[in-house]
Design brief:
The chain has two helices and seven strands, in the order αβαββββββ. It has helices at 11-14, 33-43; strands at 25-29, 50-51, 56-58, 61-67, 73-79, 82-84, 90-92. Strands 1, 2, 3, 4 and 5 form a five-stranded mixed β-sheet that branches. A two-stranded antiparallel ribbon has the order 6-7. A hairpin with a 5-residue loop joins strand 4 and strand 5.
Length: 93
Amino acid sequence: MIGLYGAQNYEPAFGPPADGFRGFTLAINLESFEECKQVYEALRAVDGVELLSEPTEAFWGGGFDWKDPEGNVWDVAWAKGTTLDERGGLTFA
């Protein structure tokens, strides 16, 4: 699943496109907050990855943000009340 969110939601945190933020984020949705923490730990060992935030729980679930070596900003998230089907598709309850 690809989630597209307006730049106005992220520019306060990541800056305007001229500063490297491209006006969109890419998202990876996981089955649990624990998986978010595991992905965070795995990304810590990858050269060229910039971790922009630590895994944080929120009223909607939780997650963190990171930037890949090409400058793309990613959200790694878990949303309460969601599940992944056998294809990895996200289902909202």
